[in-house]
């Protein structure tokens, strides 16, 4: 589904990723964990083409997208729930969802919208409310719903649990599990390593721009190095 | 009605007329600012070019012997809107897109350069002197008074009101209901995120320049007919006034631009009517200074509050 081969990414002159190779297979949940500043968000944004990789290749569904424009990449069956949610705060919940399905027909949008409301009944209640007035958890649901509107084959989530209450985090992880059941491939970046690895088929550990470890989710959870560094001993 | 109140109503009518055209031009400033956070300093010139295009179309039709007024006006309007929109698009392509994302001063300078270029281009192509604009809509009706003072609304003023009202309603509907309008709002809130949804943000940015330019062209035709003459500097003062109106109402806010334009127009005409015409610019720019001092976000502009 998604392959990164020896990807290097720079911010100006500073290299943030020093040759990263990651693979996400169809139907999998793959978690990427790592400390602050390890380059997790950079890795995801490189997939989205903003910034573009300076060398190496990014392949999405068999197609080399390393040099594609962000707007083209994001129209080829992939969508993102970005760090900090980034809902359009002045738009209503419904308008936010419609932005997610921007390139779909009206009937497709209606169907996807109903589907999102089934997953998150809360969003239906708030349909006509401005997104900026909702709680963090609700905004996170909206960000996920918006990403689902384009009916993606793969969804990228960047720290979906950040800043949320434990109960809401549990709900969000349940939804991520449901996405897999629907056949959507999930690439998840988390600081909440325990839950992310628990849910994942496979996981990668990113440290200062390099992949340190790569194994199944269960094995990583059992790995003493991972336990020390990311699971609080 | 007493003469004093008639006089007041007359000033109000005059002020609203001018104010509504300021509002039309101000929308172009405010939309572009709302999306890319920069002032389009060539906007006044786009408006001026709209007026010239309309005049050329009117002259052309007259040469062809067309004399049916509605046809002349519609053709002039359509030509002005098309040429100005193309100009708006070209300004974005030439002066903004290549330098977007650089230091804020750079697009500012390139836009001012564009403005000087367009002004001088019209100087060369059309000459520097005033050109008479045919007064095609004449007459009006009196709403009171006697021989000493007569309050009246001209048909031209009514045309300005009605046209502006139609444009504003159409724009409001477009922004609030249409798919592209929704994308414009989304891009103005978070351009990067809109891009991450697959939206070609360059196109949306170009669309805002084009919409602003089209409205400026409408104002160009209306004010050309209202004043009865145009020159290559026609856009300069109008641009400054409309910019003031946009800041007054809250730059980035479309209802703000509408309100700001009306307030500015009315305060100018009241100054002309009760103090002296020479002071009207003092009052407009005085208002700008006051609003910047005491409410820098403008009347309807809101400071950005983000909920985390």
TrEMBL record, chain A:
Domain of life, per lineage: Bacteria
Source organism per UniProt: Marinobacter iranensis
Protein name: High-affinity branched-chain amino acid transport ATP-binding protein
Family: Belongs to the ABC transporter superfamily.
Domain ABC transporter: 2-233
Keywords, sorted A to Z: Amino-acid transport, ATP-binding, Nucleotide-binding, Transport
GO molecular function terms noted in the UniProt entry: ATP binding
Signal peptide: none
PANTHER family in UniProt: HIGH-AFFINITY BRANCHED-CHAIN AMINO ACID TRANSPORT ATP-BINDING PROTEIN LIVF
Keyword Transport belongs to the record: yes
Pfam family for this entry, one: ABC_tran
Automatic annotation (TrEMBL), chain B:
Keyword tRNA-binding among record annotations: no
Keyword Ligase included in the entry's annotation: no
Transmembrane annotation, as ranges: 20-39, 46-65, 71-91, 103-122, 155-175, 204-227, 233-266, 278-294
Membrane topology, from the record: Multi-pass membrane protein
Subcellular location: Cell inner membrane
Pfam families: BPD_transp_2
Keywords annotated in UniProt: Amino-acid transport, Cell inner membrane, Cell membrane, Membrane, Transmembrane, Transmembrane helix, Transport
Domain of life of the organism encoding this protein: Bacteria
InterPro entries: ABC_transp_permease, BCAA_transport_permease
Assigned protein family: Belongs to the binding-protein-dependent transport system permease family. LivHM subfamily.
Matching PANTHER family: BRANCHED-CHAIN AMINO ACID TRANSPORT SYSTEM PERMEASE PROTEIN LIVH, HIGH-AFFINITY BRANCHED-CHAIN AMINO ACID TRANSPORT SYSTEM PERMEASE PROTEIN LIVH
Name under which the protein is recorded: High-affinity branched-chain amino acid ABC transporter permease LivH
Taxonomic source organism: Marinobacter iranensis
